[in-house]
Task: structure prediction
Amino acid sequence: MILPIVAYGDPVLKRVGQDIDAEYPNLAELIDNMYETMYNAYGVGLAAPQIGLPIRLFIIDTTPFSEDEDLTEEEINTLKAFNKVFINAKITEEEGDEWAFNEGCLSIPDVREDVFRKSKITIEYLDENFEKHKDTYDGLIARVIQHEYDHIDGILFTEKLSTLKKRLIKGRLDNISKGKVRVDYKMRFPKQKKRR
Result:
């Protein structure tokens, strides 16, 4: 089932997600719905807060990045094969030089900005079968993981921008929170407070 993606301005996007256990209700169905929602919106990652759930769960499929013509065959194959579920993730190490990459977010449509992140991470997480993993990733995969990981910590990529950039996009962010944006996927916008 395709779920509505929560838009910028909804308080759930600012909450730190809670750990879950294997008894979390309908988890397999939730993960399937998240994949369907992400693919419908042409995303490469989706975190539970983006569908209104303040839990530490996100999914990633970097296949769309494999279509970049500047990549080596090895990089293409790595990106095509990377499709994972991360539960209760914890980044234990970030290293390497920071590098800029133009990021966007399904919760913040039509806003793309360069964000600086470390090039290599080590992350501990549980998969959908609640098996433990500790893996190290670099490059684009590390970047996508960091973006989704920020979501479960209540952080949006726009918070990583300079003060000037934040001022420049403020109007666009306000419009998104008011539902004044055109998207070709289902979204849920924050309820607007009535003025007296």
About this structure: The chain has a mean pLDDT of 95. Helices lie at 27-40, 73-81, 139-152, 163-177. The first helix runs from residue 27 to 40. DSSP finds four helices and seven strands in the chain.
